Amino acid sequence: MQRGRSTAVPDSTLDTVCSQGADVIAHRGFADVYPENTLTALERAATASDGTATTTVELDVMPCATGEPVVFHDATLDRVTDAPDALAGQAVWETPLETLRSLDVLDSGEPVPLLAEAFEAVPDSVALNVEFKHPGVDPGPTGLLTRDAARTERTRWRPFVERVLDVAADHDHDLLVSSFFEGALAATRAVDPDVAVANVFYRGIEDGFTVADRYDCEAVHPPWNMIYGTPLFNEPYVSGPFDPHDLVARAHEAGRAVNVWTVETAEQVRHLRAAGDDGLVVDDPAVLGGEAR
C-alpha cells in the first residue's frame, strides 16, 4: 500500500472494492476450510490451484501486549489455541508476543501470526480486508457515537491504527480497512485519508449509514439478514430485526460497495447476488459451487 495515494479505490468504488471484479471475500482465509487466520489459510485462500482461490482475503487484527499487530479474531486464547488453562482466558492484547508465538493455532502447527507475516504470505495481486478488532486499550462502544465520543475514540485507536498502516505501507496490496468500531474508522481516516474504509453494520441500518456518511466509507458490510427484498431479510442471525430499508440501493446511490457477511449457504448466495450485493464474505468457497471468483 502506498501511503498518500489511494490504491484500494482509485476511481470507481463499485469496480474496485472486493478486488477488481471478484465478489468473494475469504473470511479469515476461508475459516471452514483452513485453520482460521493462520498463514497457511491466508496463503491458500489466495493461491489455491483447485479453482477456489479468491482475490480478496479478510483477516482480523489486534495488538499483543508488546504492541505488535497480530492476526487473531477472539478476545481470548481458549477457542483457537492450545494455551494452558492458566492462559486460556487471557486477553490477546495482554499476552506478550513471545507467548503467542509459542502457541499452536487449531492444531495447524503454526503460531499466532504477525500482521507483517500475513502481508508477506498473501501475494500483492490479492486485496486484503483488514478488520480492526481491538486497539489494546478499552476499545469503547461499537456502533454510532456522538461527535464528542467519536473524537475521544479516534484518539484511543490512533496509536494502534498507525502501527497497522505502517505495516501496510511496506506492501503493495489493495487495502480495505473495516471495523464495528467507529473509533477505528475515525483513526484510519485521520492517519491516512486515502485508505479505503468500510463500516461493519450490526445493530441498525440507519445508524450504520450515519457512520458511513460521517467517514465517507467506500463500502458497507451488513449481515446477510439486513438485505431487504430477499427471503433472508430479518431471518434469525446475530442481530435484528430491522426496519424495511433498501440498504443495497442506498449504498449504491452513494457509490458504496456492499459486502455481506458471513454467507453460509448456496441459497444465500443466490438471493444476495440477485439483490445486487458486491461482495460475499464466506468461510467456505463450496457455497459458490466451487467458483470463488
From TrEMBL:
<dbReference type="InterPro" id="IPR030395">
    <property type="entry name" value="GP_PDE_dom"/>
</dbReference>
<feature type="domain" description="GP-PDE">
    <location>
        <begin position="22"/>
        <end position="292"/>
    </location>
</feature>
<protein>
    <submittedName>
        <fullName>Glycerophosphodiester phosphodiesterase</fullName>
    </submittedName>
</protein>
<dbReference type="InterPro" id="IPR017946">
    <property type="entry name" value="PLC-like_Pdiesterase_TIM-brl"/>
</dbReference>
<dbReference type="Pfam" id="PF03009">
    <property type="entry name" value="GDPD"/>
</dbReference>
